[in-house]
Structure formats: C-alpha cells, structure tokens
Amino acid sequence: MPRAAVVGAGMTEFGIHDIPLEELFAEAAFGALDDAGAEPADVEALYFGNAMSGQAENTTHLGPKVATHAGMAGIPVQRFEDACATSANAFKNAVAAVEAGVHDAVLVGGVERCTPETGRDTAAMTRVFASASHRQYEQPAGLTFPGVFALLTKRHMYEHGTTEEQLAHVAVKNHGHGALNPRAHFGKEVTVEEVLDGPVVADPFRLMDCCPFSDGASAVVVVSDELADSYDAPVDVTGVGHATDVVPIADKPTPHVTQAARDAAEEAYEQAGVSADDVDFAEVHDCFTGAEVLASEALGLVADGEGGPAAATGRTARDGDVPINPSGGLKAKGHPIGATGTAQVVELTEQLRGEAGARQLPDADRAVAHNLGGDAATTVVSVMEVRG
Amino acid sequence: MPRAAVVGAGMTEFGIHDIPLEELFAEAAFGALDDAGAEPADVEALYFGNAMSGQAENTTHLGPKVATHAGMAGIPVQRFEDACATSANAFKNAVAAVEAGVHDAVLVGGVERCTPETGRDTAAMTRVFASASHRQYEQPAGLTFPGVFALLTKRHMYEHGTTEEQLAHVAVKNHGHGALNPRAHFGKEVTVEEVLDGPVVADPFRLMDCCPFSDGASAVVVVSDELADSYDAPVDVTGVGHATDVVPIADKPTPHVTQAARDAAEEAYEQAGVSADDVDFAEVHDCFTGAEVLASEALGLVADGEGGPAAATGRTARDGDVPINPSGGLKAKGHPIGATGTAQVVELTEQLRGEAGARQLPDADRAVAHNLGGDAATTVVSVMEVRG
Domain containing B269: what range? Predict the structure, then answer.
C-alpha cells in the first residue's frame, strides 16, 4: 500500500527572481494547488522548507509569512532546515503525517533566493552555505562546499580511478537534459572540452562541474492513500528513507561511499518493497558532478566504481538504461537550496504522469529522488510510482 | 487516552554558556536520557529546535552536529525553526509521530546561544531577533520585538485599562518564582518600585518588563502511551494545539487577543477533553510582562481584561488560584530562544511529578504550556497531566 500520494505539483522557473520570498513561494504553492484542482482551504497544514533566508536576507519565522501569501493564514506550519536536504525532510515529515492520519491533505514546499541579481553577494553566500559544514572543525580551515565535495570526489578517484573527463560527462549530460526543461536555470548544452577547459574551482572541479546559485520555489500537495483517487492524477509515494551521518569529513571512515545515502536508500527501498533494479530513473543531488557519481552508486543504480564510466558511456543519459536527472539536475535546472528537495518530487510526479513534455522519458513507472544536505550528512531518499 | 508521554527531562542552567552549541545541547540531552534511564540507542529520532544560530554564529544544519555529540550519529533528525516557538513545534511534531507509531521513542529539544559574553553582540542580536517580524512591512520601520509586544500591550491597556503597575507585578512575581529555581538566569527578587523606576525600553515596557538574552538547552524523551509504563516516572501528554496568525501587527484585526494562542488552546483542550478551569498551573511565554497578561487571557485562565488585575492581586502567584510561570518564566528563568519551548515541558514534567524542589506547587495534576513565536504568529499550547 502506498504511504501517501502526490496529487499536485508546482514550481517556479529556477533562475533569478527579484521578488520577496513570500510571493515566490506563493507562485509554486498556487501552481501545486491548481494542478491538484484544490483550494488553499483543502490543505490542513504546511510543511515548509527554507535553508538560509535568516542569513541571506534577515527574515526568519517564514512559515506564517508564506502561509499568509498562499491564502492559508492561520494554518499550522512548521519550517524545516536541514541544509540542502531541507524540503525533502519537510516532505518526509508530511508523508508520515498523512500516512498516520494526522492530516488528510497537506502542502509541502520550499523557497530560496541566492543570486547576486537579487542582492545575495556571491562571496557572502558562499560563506552562508559553508555554515552547513562543521563550525569548529571545517569552517576555520576555509572549507566551503566546492572543497567538501572535491574531497569526497578525490577519494572516489583514488579508490575507483574516476577521471575528470568522466565527471565532465555528468555536466554535459545534465546540461543536455536541462536544455529540454523550460524551467531550468541553464538552457544551453556544453561539451566535454568546454567543461575541461573551465577554470578550476576546487580540484578536481572546474566551473561547469558546479551547480549555480539559484532563486526559486517548489511545492507539492500530499494526500492520504484513501483520498488519492478523488484527485485527477495521483502519483504514489511508496517509500521515504532518511538518515544522517557525522558532519566532519575527517570523521567519516569511508567518505566517498556517502553512508547516509545508502542507509536512506535501503530504508526507502524496503518500505516500497523494491530494489534498485526496479527503478526506471532517478533525480539525484548533483550539486557537483562528483556528487552525482557518488549518488548513483549509493542508490545502487550502478555498481560501486561504475558511476564515472556510466556517465561517460551514456548509461545515465535520458536514453540510457538508468536515466539520471532528466530535469537537468541541480547542475542545469539550478539549486535554490530550500526548494530543491520538493523540486525533485515535482519532476518525479510529472515524469510518472507522462506530463514531462520534451524531456519525458519513455519508460517511467517507478523513480527515486535523492536529496542531500551538508557534508553528505543528511540524506532523504524517496520512491514514487505510477498509481497501482 | 494520552497522546504520548514524557519520560525524561533535562536542561542546562539558563544564563551564560561559552561552549559550542553541540556541547551545550548534549548536556540537556544526556540529562533527559539519564532522567529516563535510557541510552542514546533507545531513541529512534531527534526532533531538534534552534532558531537563529545561522545568523548568530554561522552554523546551520545543526541536526546531525548535535546528534553526533549526543551519541546519536546516524539517527534521523530534523531541525525546526519557528522563531521563539521553535522547540514547542518540534515537540508537537514529535508527539504526533509517536502517537502515530512512526517512532516509539524520540528525543526532542533545543539550544541557543544569545549572550554578549559568548560573542553575541546585543545590538546585533536584537536585529537578528527582529528577523522573525515582517521583513517588508515591519523591519524597515525599525520595529524590534520590544516594540512588537509594546504595541500589543498598549492595545490591551486601551481596551481593558491594564496599567504599568499591573505589568510590574508580573515581573515581581516571576522574579520571585525564579529565585526558587536553581537553573534560572536571574535569581534575585525585585520590587514593583524597582521595575517602575527602570529605564523605558519600549513604552510601556521598562527594562525589567523584558526577558533577557540567554544561552541554554533543554530536552525531553517522548515515548508512546504503550511504552510509557516501562519508564519510572511518565507524565502524560494529552493535548497539543498549534495555530498561526498573519505576521504584521497592522494586519491583525484584534492584536491584543493573540488569536493564534486562542486557536491553539482550543485545540489542545479539546484533545485533552478539559477546559481552562481544569488547569492547575501554566508556563506561558512571558518574553515581556505584557505577553504574560495576554497569554493568561488567551488560555482562558483568567477572563479577558483580568490578566493585569490577576497578576496584581496575586492570583497568578505560586500560592494563587491559578499559578503562572512557577519556573520564573522567560522573564527570570531566561530565554534561549530555541530551548524555551521544551524547557516549559521540562518544568511541567518536574512539577507534575512532584520533583520541582523549592518551587514545587502543592496542587499540580494538570498543566498547560504556551510557547509563542514572532509577532504572536505561531503558538503551540500543550496540556500535560499526572499519568492516569
């Protein structure tokens, strides 16, 4: 039996949005409600994600603020913050609440503004993002997130022989996918040579190995299994796993395996009663190209050590045997931190409904979303399926 | 039937703690676990509250960081932020999860460092706190929280004739209660004259109408009703209500009634099957003296307009007919934002067990906690009772 169902999905374009967070979130919220054929009064609670607006623009306690702008003043709302896994954790809690009968229907979503065009200075935002790494052990060393994921990836290269060219193929693939997505931050294709010619950000990552800072919002309507069939196009949520890990990279015995992702995936697959072999495609947290390689292995979509070759040989492209990030991923679609988790759920919903337009995958009956926070320390993995 | 039970409670002294947030939280977490006779491995998840460490000390994604220091690396953890109602909202979600069977036993708690002695400049923290008010409508006017609650209280004075002297009695009472609490930030008694002679902070509030900036942490172990009797001293949680309101004061039709508190109280009482008349004592969110007056009325503990007179005539003192804030409240116990909600639950637990030492109330079988966030926009009200 499904744990819950997604019956409405909405998101803004990811990119630059110079409007207040409340208005930006409302656009996604109304999109999700309209898609579900629902009114604000039809949802009983809001599970809301925002990662860093306190630091970025001195606004906290956003829950009641965005609820009011989405026509839900007075509703119980809770704000989640778990770094880049913020709205996936909101989704996990919402699915549990709906499954348990705490609520019959809820709205889940997230919002973030991160771009210099809206006043978020890039250097300052890099420091803000770094607040998710370890305050005492890592920040004093100047370790910002390109460095965090560079270290994880370097270890993977050491263990498995992964190459910079293989990483570049991840960027090329996701830019190619993003070019088909009208809501993607980047709509242009790139070549392996362009990626490898880019300036080094943090060895082994060059500029185009890195996802952008984006503004954006996403939201989904989650209802109980019992209510699902009263909506036009429900998609089942059959498993949601959640695990954490120690934060400092130096404390992780095998950093490149991203253990929390493996723990979360195991939990999600077990709930859904499936294995990685049963998954038709995945949206994974490719904040850097190396992160996608690690995720593809942690989810069991390819064997350990095969993440790099799988990208280079086209296995993870939209016409490969295990498509990864048909939306363009964080790399091309963009990464408005608190909106990313539920944006993955939006992509799964649209693909599983067959409503993904130019980027529709031909074979999309079951999919997995992988949203990661901080030093690979919080991971939420969700399994969704065409309603049975 | 109880919704859940609290079987362990722990908190640090509230005051000045110049140690990292992870260590500060661990002190409360281990206190709660020891009190329950439990090990870290006995809890299945952490519901964690922190309001503003991102802004105050550039550390976010605190969930896995504090979990690791509390001996729970790998556990699913979610961080909540709902301004000053942060850890009460974590408690609400934890109670729902345990009641629903999502988990059998969880740890709930919060932590904050706010004092200049630990590097949090008071002027800067005042701006940080103000991030919970409305970014576009209120912050540009310079409206910080003394002003927010001064406006709410001024309206109450206009409607009901509440006086500054009555407000001063709230401070006198709570300082008196706090003098009996070894964990209180302020341990000294004050007089009405001293309060009324203090410098004006925001009319009608003088210095001693305002709670302090504090450092501290609190935590409780919450288990299912089924598991409760396997612990030594369970206390039942019979109701938890949660409501929000529009944020800008100018948008509230009747600001002094704090509508979210009334909505949350109604929900909590209904779950518990009780009325305000059945409540033996309360811990309420007295960030300012006026806030306690408003809360005492919103909870139905005294009639509308009687909050001021009730304080002045001793009705809300520990030997009155409806004792409020036997812990000393935020006013004297202190207010480490993200720790305040669960600290109220700690006080209820100790009083209902008869373990409150010098501040023990003689008649304590059922109590209510009221934790408020932002411009009275998020409120969580909890009812707890001696196990039936």
Answer: 4-119+211-386
Contact yes or no for B346/B352 (Cβ under 8 A): no
Give the pLDDT confidence of A283-333 residue by residue, as tens digits: 999 999 999 999 999 999 999 999 999 999 999 999 999 999 999 999 999
**Inter-chain residue contact B61 with A139, CB threshold 8 Å:** no
A367 bridge partner residues: A281, A384
Name A92's Cβ contacts closer than 8 Å, sequence gap at least 6. A240, A242, A380, A382, B78
Flag whether A26 is in a domain: yes
Beta-sheet pairing, A105-112 with A45-49: parallel
Residue A295 falls within a domain, yes or no?
Answer: yes
Please confirm, yes or no, whether A335 is among the known catalytic residues. Answer: yes
Number of domains in chain B: 1
Q: Which of A84, A114, A211, A287 is catalytic?
A: A84
Chain B contact set for A244 (CB, 8 A):
63-64, 67, 73-77
The residue with tokens 């031909």 is A362
β-strands A200-202, A205-206 pairing? antiparallel
Tens-place pLDDT, residues B175-185: 999 999 999 99
Residue of chain A whose Cα is closest to the Cα of B98: A100
Chain B CA closest to residue A241: B76
Q: Is A370 marked active-site?
A: no
How far apart CA B305 and CA B284 sit, in angstroms, is 17
Pairing of the two strands B46-49 and B77-80: parallel
Of B17, B69, B84, B370, the active-site residue reads B84
Q: Is residue A90 domain-resident? A: yes
> What H or E segment, with its residue span, contains residue B174?
helix B164-178
Contacts of A378 in chain B (CB under 8 A): 61, 63-64, 77
Of B60, B67, B127, which has the smallest distance from its Cβ to A244's Cβ?
Answer: B67
> How far is the C-alpha of A153 from the C-alpha of A287, rounded, in Å?
12
Cβ-nearest to B74 among A78, A101, A243:
A243
CA distance linking residue A254 with residue A156, whole number of Å = 10
What's the count of helices (H) and strands (E) in chain A, helices before strands? 14, 11
Chain A residues closer than 8 Å to B378 by CB: 61, 63-64, 77
When scoring A244, A246, A254, A266 by the number of chain B Cβ atoms within 10 A, the one with the most, hence best to mutate, is A244
Q: Which residues contact B192 (CB under 8 A, 6 or more apart)?
A: B165, B168, B169, B172
What predicted TM-score, i.e. pTM, was given to this entire model? 0.98
Dump pLDDT digits (tens) for B101-158: 999 999 999 999 999 999 999 999 999 999 999 999 999 999 999 999 999 999 999 9
Q: What is the CATH number of the domain that holds B267?
A: 3.40.47.10
A156, A175, A256, A335: the catalytic one is A335
* Residue B204 is assigned to a structural domain of this protein: no
Instruction: Please answer whether residues B168 and B195 qualify as being in contact, where contact means their C-beta atoms are separated by less than 8 angstroms.
Output: yes
